[in-house]
Amino acid sequence: MNFKFFSLRFVAFALLGLTACSQPSPGPTPEPAPVPVAPTQTATTLEIYLPDIYCESLVPRQVEATGTDVEGAIAIVLDHFNTADFAIAGYRLSLDPAGHTATIDLRLSPDSRPFQTLSGCQQFALFGSLRQTLTNHPTWQIQEVEFTQQGEAIVL
């Protein structure tokens, strides 16, 4: 009889415990702590110049860029000119505020064709777009843009 009483108490206790698991919790669940996020660079609107469809003139376009304004503008312009056989792998920008000059040292991908093989339209589009984008922005005060490849002037 003691065994029967003990087993009934055990079964009753187990049933009470299991039904308590299905009951909703009495209080609200606390919100998880926010995960800290590193600040992102804010985008700014810039005006860049790209060739028209006839490659006769450069047309202003409004774009969003991050990073420094000058570097963001250069990166966006360069992105427009990478093709299957011509790819710019990177660049370095040197600014001479006293001389109001920007020097862009361009790096071609190893399997890219050289600058000298660009057509007249492609030369106008690439170098003209960069030059006009940088010189037409009044706050940058850039009056001249020079182009080099690994420190040597690009001769076309």
Overview of this structure, please?
The protein is α+β, with helices and mostly antiparallel strands. The protein has one domain (44-153). Helices cover 30% and strands 26% of the residues. It has 3 helices and 6 strands. Helix 2 (69-79) runs antiparallel to helix 3 (120-135). The termini are far apart.
Beta-strand residue fraction:
25-35%
Helix content: 25-40%
Oligomeric form? single chain
Chain-averaged pLDDT: 81
Sequence of strands across the biggest β-sheet: 3-4-5-6
Low-confidence blocks of residues: 3-22, 32-38
- Biggest beta-sheet profile: 4 strands, mixed
Shape: globular
Order of helices and strands: HEEHEEHEE
The counted number of beta strands is 6
Helical run tally: 3
Describe the secondary-structure layout.
Blueprint: H1 2-21, E1 44-51, E2 58-65, H2 69-79, E3 88-96, E4 101-108, H3 120-135, E5 144-149, E6 152-153
Parallel strand pairs: 4-5
Antiparallel strand pairs: 1-2, 3-4, 5-6
Describe this structure in a few short sentences.
Helices cover 30% and strands 26% of the residues. By secondary structure, it is of the alpha+beta class. It has one domain.
Tags for this model:
156 residues, alpha+beta, two-stranded antiparallel sheet, 30% helix, disordered N terminus
